[in-house]
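#lab-general

N.A. 3:47 PM
ok so I finally got the sequence cleaned up, no stray characters, all 178 residues accounted for. can someone with queue access submit it? mine expired

B.Y. 3:52 PM
send it over

N.A. 3:53 PM
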Amino acid sequence: MIHPRQTIRDAVKALLLAGNVTDVGDRVSANRVKPAWPDKLPAIRIFTLGKETSEVYETAPKSLKRTFPLDLEIGVSGGDNITDVLDSLAAEVEKLMHADDSFTDTASDSFLSETDTGVDAENKRQVAFIKLTYMVRYKTYAPEAIDDDPELHDLKKVTAITTDDEGGVIESDVTLQE
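B.Y. 4:20 PM
back already:
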């Protein structure tokens, strides 16, 4: 079973590839475990390493509103105008992300929440990056019960207790159909 976060990362990757970000080509990765930066830059990495929050949205059937940070890291190499190149690429990516903030309906919505820049000091060449963090919201339903769960299949009778207008207790047994 694919988790919605993976579906969202894949949709963002498809969105960026289809948007043909200047000089990036097919160097868009939805996996941060790969080497820090490919040999050829610029490139974009998409990852979800931050903390996700959830809140109950509906109780029957139970559904959750979930929010997580989606990071897009754009890397470029060398040159005196490295900051200008980063800003130009970031502007292109932000425009694409804003144009489809639900990523082909894989999320409820998203918004840019933080931007961070830096230099990859461990790299043998001069690599600068800009990280765009989007807060992404989506909804999930509680997992369905496993069909062979004996605790669920043993439920045969429910007792409902209510009160009448005079405060008297009314107890009703309801037998479930098999």
